[in-house]
Amino acid sequence: MECLSQNCTQGSVGPANQIAGLLIQTLLTAFCSISDENQWPANYGPAAIEKGLDPYDFIIIGGGTAGSVLANRLSEDPSHKVLLLEAGGNPPVESEVPQWFSAMQLTNYDWQYQTEPAKKSCLAMRGSKCNWPRGRQLGGTSSLNGMLHIRGNRKDFDEWEEMGNPGWGWNSVLEYFKKSEDFRVEKTFSEHRNGKGGPLPVDYFNHTMDTSVISDIIVKAVKELGFKYVTEFAEGSYLGYSKIHANIQNGKRFSTGKAYLPPTKDRPNLHVIKYAHVETIKFTEDKRAQEVVFKYNRSDIMTASTTKEIILSAGAISTPHILMLSGVGPESHLKKQGIPLVENLPVGNNLQDHVLAPVFFTFGKTTDSPVSKEELIDSIYLYLTNRTSSLSGVGIMDLVGFMNTTDSNALYPNIQFHHFFYKKGSPHLHFYLTSAGYNDIVKYQLIKANEKTHILVIYAVLLKPKSRGTIRLQSKNTNIKPKIKTKFFDKPEDEDTLLRGVGHVVNLEETKVFQQNGANVLQLQFPTCNTAEWSGEYWKCYIRHMSTSIYHAVGTAKMAPVTDPTSVVDLELKVKGISGLRIVDASVMPTIPSANTNAAVTMIAEKAADLIKKAWSKGRSGDEL
User: Is 134:313 a contact under the CB 8 Å cutoff?
Assistant: First the structure.
């Protein structure tokens, strides 16, 4: 440790250097222990280059939220030879640290999708395009999302069944939610409601005093407005405010990748090829999915073949992209792109998402001090040594509210609320605004305000949109990203509902507790919003500028009866008109759940795994159902 003496003005006879060296070594060891590269299945890519690929029983495209589940469940049977293809690699260390959940956006661990410019949304974004982060790593978007574990409510899934999908109602899917879960909050555990012993931990975030104080202020404010605080949302009612569970363990993220893939690393019947960018699926003349063509490590074109099924789990954006590149999609669109038609299906239609509008408050009378260098260092030290501090949580984001804006007696919501708090001078606010994609006009106003005061942000989130967007090809070049048209607010009632949700947030300013803490709505100025302050027209203009996605894209390969012209897959998730091809991800959702979507995607994958196993059980051909 001579370097320590050389860099210090005071000499040392040994013990001081030894203690400092021990501290540094301890911190380095603690940092390395955050994420263990050896927990993940090895990359089979180099071996595939050297030896080639024999046929597999099942090929799973996408090692994300659903694909990780399927890889585990299908390879549980040692007679099944399974190949998992993932475009990314292992998650980075930032994926493990809860507070850094958005740090991977706009990096190589994110597909970095953007929406097409629209006239009614995303107008305050750079180029009027909203960013749509999607995970490009094992675990997919579950490796970069906010980790909140919210299933949705009974009505969401009963609606699927009522649309002609028997077996997908609440009573049927509950067992698959529970199968995935290891519920760790003993005081509220219910054997009927919660899962125990599953791969995915469900627990509360660690909390610091700072976040608890702000959460308490918000809870007091919403109670003043007549809303209730509940210990836990039950299946019979989903209204009010509560602290939400998360996929978290010992202060670290637990994605589906981390939950389901490490237990498979020594299974000889599962191969995982990382950095495998799937280009197309190839079909036989009788329309059986037979081969997957992919580019390994951005250079080598490889082909993998299947004896049973190809399972597409690339997510609600990449799944329709791959299908259309492979000739499965709207006939007229594929013809324009010069792609030979395999099957004419409404792939890429029915795109749904939770659009949000953030409202910003200056928060002037809290006792919190500005962010200091010492505070940041302390939080890192505490996290490294015992996985506590603010880094082990997501601030106040896990305080979630649900309301119905049209019926106070309703059991189910149409608006959700998320909360964020940025201390005076917080570096995190600048990062949030940049990763979200806001333009310089917005960033300047908010950062300037944050130099003087704390900032509270409350998202009003539209839960059940009527508008439907599309995914389409920009080119038949497999390296060019698809065209995403959200069509947010295409249906006027969506804008009206979100306006009412924003109105609820703005009304918090009038509560006694907000006034006591100097909380005031920050009215942002836009060159095109030349309307009276606080008027309905101002807020409509505001929503159209500040609205963005909360990254819950679903529905682009809709599940519905085969007689339904809007369907892409049947109730067993098999692609219509094609043999040996299923879709298992958020694409198949007929309608979007009234909550964060990660838990529902995990449920779909658990149920699909059982469907696939049953289809290929001893003596069955896979097409016999």
Answer: no
- Tell me how far apart the alpha carbons of residues 189 and 186 are, in angstroms, rounded to a whole number: 5
Selected catalytic residue, list 80, 245, 545, 552: 552
Q: What is the pLDDT of residues 135-167, one digit of tens each?
A: 999 999 999 999 999 999 999 999 999 999 999
Domains of the chain, residue spans:
40-91+137-200+254-349+553-625, 112-133+205-244+355-462+489-546
Token couple for 160 = 């699927």
Q: Would you tell me which CATH number, out of the four given (3.30.560.10, 2.40.30.260, 3.30.930.10, 3.40.50.300), belongs to the domain 112-133+205-244+355-462+489-546?
A: 3.30.560.10
- Looking at per-residue pLDDT, the higher value among 146 and 28 belongs to 146
Whole-prediction pTM value?
Answer: 0.94
What's the alpha-carbon Rg for the chain, to the nearest Å?
Answer: 25
How would CATH label the architecture of 40-91+137-200+254-349+553-625?
Answer: 3-Layer(bba) Sandwich (3.50)
Give 322-346 pLDDT, tens digit per residue.
Answer: 999 999 999 999 999 999 999 999 9
Report the range out of 7-16, 225-234, 412-421 with the highest average pLDDT: 412-421
Which amino acids are annotated as binding site, given as ranges?
141, 278
| Residue positions forming the annotated binding site for FAD | 141, 278
Identify each DSSP E strand in 436-540 by its residue range.
454-462, 470-472, 483-485, 519-521
Q: How far apart are CA 364 and CA 491, in angstroms?
A: 38
Matching residue, tokens 């929503």: 543
* Catalytic residue status for 321: no
